[in-house]
Amino acid sequence: MKILIAGANGQLGQAMLRVCADLQLPHCGVAHAQMDITDLKQIAAVVEREQPTYVVNMAAVSDVRAAQSDAAHCYAVNRDGAANLARVCAEHSIPLLHLSTDYVFDGQLGLPYTEEHKPNPQNVYGNSKLEGEEAVRELCPQHVIVRSSWVFAATGNNFFARTLAALQRGDSVQAANDQIGCPTYAVHLAQVCAAILQQVDCDTDPPLWGTYHYCDRGPTTRYDFARTIATTFAQRTEAPEPKVEPIDSSALNDRVYSARHAVLATEKLFFTFGIRQRGWRQGVKRAVEVAAQHGLTE
Ligand SMILES: NC(=O)c1ccc[n+]([C@@H]2O[C@H](COP(=O)([O-])OP(=O)(O)OC[C@H]3O[C@@H](n4cnc5c(N)ncnc54)[C@H](OP(=O)(O)O)[C@@H]3O)[C@@H](O)[C@H]2O)c1
Predict the structure, then answer these.
(1) Would you call the peptide bond into 206 cis, given omega within 30 degrees of 0 as the criterion?
(2) Ligand 1 pocket check: which of 37, 41, 64, 151 to mutate, most ligand atoms within 8 Å of Cβ?
(3) Residue nearest to atom 1 of ligand 1 (CA)
(4) What is the pLDDT of residues 58-98, one digit of tens each?
(5) I want to staple 186 with a disulfide (CB 3.0 to 4.6 A). Which of 15, 45, 139, 244 is the partner?
(6) Catalytic residue of the set 54, 75, 113, 125
(7) How confident is the model at residue 295 (pLDDT cuts 50, 70, 90)?
(8) 78 C-alpha to ligand 1 centroid (Å)
């Protein structure tokens, strides 16, 4: 087994590198500068050189706002880049594990979304990720697509890291109490990806290719997520607990982030792979610890 990780410098890519090292899974991470997934020839050259048995696509334009303001670039990476990887993988009969998002759904169902629910993306990011999924399904039959939500790590451009930075500066934090989802610690998600690959590697009959949902356990609001970060931060630093204020998404005056209820149902993953959900609060504790080890400055 050898896992090639595309987008290795991202928050999930970094977590995947660590998990592979911890599990002693042979792997090779390639950052954007080493392999641009919009460049088919570059992908082919890296695959020729590294001879992986699996490719994991953790490369993406993942910033929902940036996606909205530069749609052409977002589609080039999230749709066409995914298609490029799928083409090269299919040519070499290499299975592809591809990451996707709850943003393929409209967030209006009011119930957890299963893999059977019809996607209905509401923004450029969600639509580009859906079209990326479709390309992977069409071009590379040996694929696993993992949809997840609200991925966070100690560093990187994510809600956790932005909230922690604001708390460190002593800024008050406002967070929406009408956006409901499941925060997911990047390390937990990387562990799920590694566990899937280890089982797929067993060549089961029938094979386990398909689309699966994983998010950490416990739907919550952005407000409760921010409050948990603040409480955990205050416990760690023994400082008074900073104030976090709940607000309506409408008050944010934000076209991209609006009120939504996007919880992913994870039963299919459990019944197929026996993988249970981890708790996101445990992930928050761990991420605050990791940030503290880095001086709580990143
Ligand atoms: N973040 C979330 O809340 C979330 C939720 C659900 C699913 N996901 C999915 O999980 C995956 C990983 O996301 P993440 O949170 O780890 O995002 P991230 O931290 O933004 O990492 C994405 C990485 O992709 C790289 N990249 C961008 N364009 C590229 C290109 N053309 N070729 C190669 N690499 C490129 C970026 O490098 P540069 O920065 O150098 O461009 C970055 O290192 C994505 O598929 C995302 O859609 C994320």
Answers:
(1) yes
(2) 151
(3) 151
(4) 999 999 999 999 999 999 999 999 999 999 999 999 999 99
(5) 15
(6) 125
(7) low
(8) 9
Rg (CA), the chain: 19
Residue 23: which domain range? 3-293
- Whether residue 38 has its Cβ less than 6 Å from ligand 1: yes
Of ligand 1's listed atoms, the one at least distance from the Cα of 38 is 31
Residue pair 32/59 in contact (Cβ under 8 Å)? The answer is: yes
Is residue 143 in a domain? yes
3-class SS letters over 182-228: CCEEHHHHHHHHHHHHHHHCCCCCCCCCEEEECCCECCEEHHHHHHH
Is the C-beta atom of 148 inside 6 A of ligand 1? Answer: yes
Number of domains the chain contains: 1
Is 149 touching ligand 1 by the criterion CB < 6 Å? Answer: yes
Per the domain annotation, does 298 fall within a domain?
Answer: no
**CATH code of residue 275:** 3.40.50.720
The answer to whether residue 144 sits within a structural domain is yes
The question of whether 125 is a catalytic residue gets the answer yes
Whether residue 82 lies inside any domain: the answer is yes
